[in-house]
Amino acid sequence: MNVNIKPKVACIFNYASHYNYPLYSLMDKELPVDFYFGDVVKGNIKKFDVTLLAGFKKELHTIFIGHLNYLAGGIGLIFKYDKFIITGEPYCISSWLILIISRLTGKKIYLWTHGWYGREIKIKRLLKYFYFSLGTKILLYGNYARNLMIAEGFNPSKLNVIYNSLAYDDQLVVRQKLKPSEIYQQHFKNSNKVLFFIGRLIKEKKLSILLEAVSELKKKGINCNVVFIGEGEDTFSLKQLADTLGIREQVWFYGACYDEDEIGQLIFNADLCVTPGAIGLTAIHSLTYGTPVITHNDFKYHGPEFEAIQDGSTGGFFMKDDLNDLSNTIDVWIQKTTKNRDSIREKCYEIIDKHYNPHFQVKLLNELLFA
């Protein structure tokens, strides 16, 4: 079927998150979609210029009611389209109303959502079950949530894993230019293995346990360096801890970096990404440039992107908050990367190229919406 004669699909998203622009841009080019976004972005989320999308129609005024929100004008769209992709989180009142009206009018609603986390209390599970039951299809970021929802009684055929992505095409260009360099040897004046973290340096990321693990490894005669790419409220205390542990010369507080060529070099030339706290898109960023990832094993507290870490292949997991287990896991992976760095790099590339990119996502959307 020619794309030009496919019926338009309305995408109603709570906000225009900057990291989603590459995906929305590809949807804009390859699918017959119109975009509607809430006009308020909360927290530290950066917003992209919505007018860059040819299919952009309107920003909907976001009204906040406690922890809930309502997109003014969203409900009226139900009478203009037959198919909708909406942000599938039950804290949006207008999404509830769209879902209910769609059941009465025969419209098809595709809920794009995290789905289940695995830490929901009973009342929240009941609320979510009713909410997701109203949708035609559920677009999930990972198989972990899909399996939890199947256990809750959802029909597997209704649950579709769409994964997540970053600026894959731009990052692929960077990746193809990358070569081993001596950026770390020049800075640290040694050839020790390099661990890195990229993101905001905040207490929730539990970066202190990483420094403690490096200190424990040093006592065993295993020396490695740490690079923090980012800034945050925990920077000063982490510097103090590095001094106290006697490993300050092994830690590079690189600071915030927004140049993708520079980031690519830093990740590509490191040996391991270590995130002791919750992980999300950091895993995708690291694997995109071929570096395996270590994080904790309590999956219900992670973002869905943790699934890209295939234990023993593209990274590993340690027992949450367990210093000794983190140290041991780092040691195991130091040995792995010493022996098989190139093959591990290829496995990291493979998982991203297969699933965690906008091309996979748009292909799946096309199949679901227009097959």
Overview of the molecule:
It is a single chain. Helix content is 39%, strand content 19%. It is an alpha/beta fold. It folds into 2 domains: 178 residues, Glycogen Phosphorylase B (Rossmann fold), CATH 3.40.50.2000; 185 residues, Glycogen Phosphorylase B (Rossmann fold). α5 packs across α9, α7 runs parallel beside α8 and α10 packs across α11. The N and C termini lie close together (9 Å).
Distance between the termini: 9 Å
Write out the CATH superfamily name of the largest domain: Glycogen Phosphorylase B
Structural class: alpha/beta
Task: Report the CATH C-level class of the largest domain.
Answer: Alpha Beta
Q: What does the largest sheet look like?
A: 7 strands, parallel
The multimeric state of the shown protein is single chain
Helical fraction:
25-40%
Tell me the β content.
Answer: 15-25%
CATH architecture of the largest domain: 3-Layer(aba) Sandwich
- Form type: elongated
Mean pLDDT: 95
**Helix count, per DSSP?**
12
Rg, please? 22 Å
